């Protein structure tokens, strides 16, 4: 950096002071360029709604770093210097408020671009005193005593303004390009009829050269190598700052993907010609490796296919790997699907089977598991020797959990797992008693429940849902242990036969056995309520007067018996009757009674029954003991 030399007693010309300021500016500019590069960069300038909200936005203070002439105009008595350009700093110390009026056409919107540029401004005019050689005690006012002010400061300022785009149908409006010399920072979108701008209307301009909060913070945040993907499906593109101008081996970039890929994909940083992205196997992507909004890391390798971006990491996407050939290698999905490292056909002779996996195992270890295709029938004394490490007995578990000789057939596919002593056959042939030990699965209720497709391999089912069941699709001879998880009705019929010959209303926890006496014909056996049906158990006395009316049918859908009690206050005469399923089951008749006489009925309503109370006079009380 240049420095001016002065000497004791020297009369200091103004050019020396001016040159000192100029030298300091040039030195600082060169240091800034070494750190930031020579591309335009902005820091700060956050854009927020006004408070209270309006159709204006507030741009916070900030700085812009941009290349400019050392001096486009003379700097006092120093001449202009337009031959050399340096990185200058433009400062905006105070925020500004910008107006963004709504469009005047229904259904349209406008994108407003907040843009900034650098500018030199001569300012702070002052009426300066000048030396008066004729009368030193009385200085001149202004140069030559002209009485005119002169600017005393040359400021590097950041000029911020808003540029309106063309009004267009909402969703099709376009953000205007920055004016010459300006860079875009943020976009505010305003729709017809909008009266306030919120933070949701403000977005960062694509390609905005913004540092997050400073150089060190930028380095820490990694934003110089991170950008948002602005490309299309299978064609990623991003703009980085400083701009990427050349590709060198080892260059690592990151971007947030705009789209998920569904096939071979390319990447272009800062408009550089797109090059393919390859996976860890150095093969083209197949689809699903890049997820929308996922973080993607790529590294340039000029030796792969004439130059390719290697996908180092991609959050939310599948990771391509080379096929594993050693015991510590990862395997690809293709290898896993084919079980190419665990599935093999046995060789050897009767009782002494062998297996030769690739890669070979170097020692037996508990939990080693292989998918095998047996080449021979079992003999009851069979062993398996893997990778020549020694023969181990082949066992299976019996009903008590004890290990016994394995039973298998030639060409049978099965898993075998080493337990530290023997190879245990996990896919053993079924025994006749196993149907009692099948796991319970849930089967959704339906008008016709298809057990052939929903429960082909179990005998223990739980019926979910609340759809009434009128029939079952099932093969003859099948037997099921059933638990009901909700309230529904089993509708008695010729193909769904209940022991009582009546419909059954289930409750959670009820159980039964279904036995198929013929194809698609079942009988309900051993029906057992999950909750005791005694009246009063887990029930309460409820005043139903406000929800019940005479001459109206009601159905007991509670799954439990209800104890019904009604009475009427009779002034002269009344017939109080109870009908269950349309039949009168109780009746109380009063003729010419004294005023204040009561007419009362009490009856038990079973689950599923329809009940009605008829009365000439209104009821004084209707209570039910129920859940």
From TrEMBL:
<protein>
    <submittedName>
        <fullName>Uncharacterized protein</fullName>
    </submittedName>
</protein>
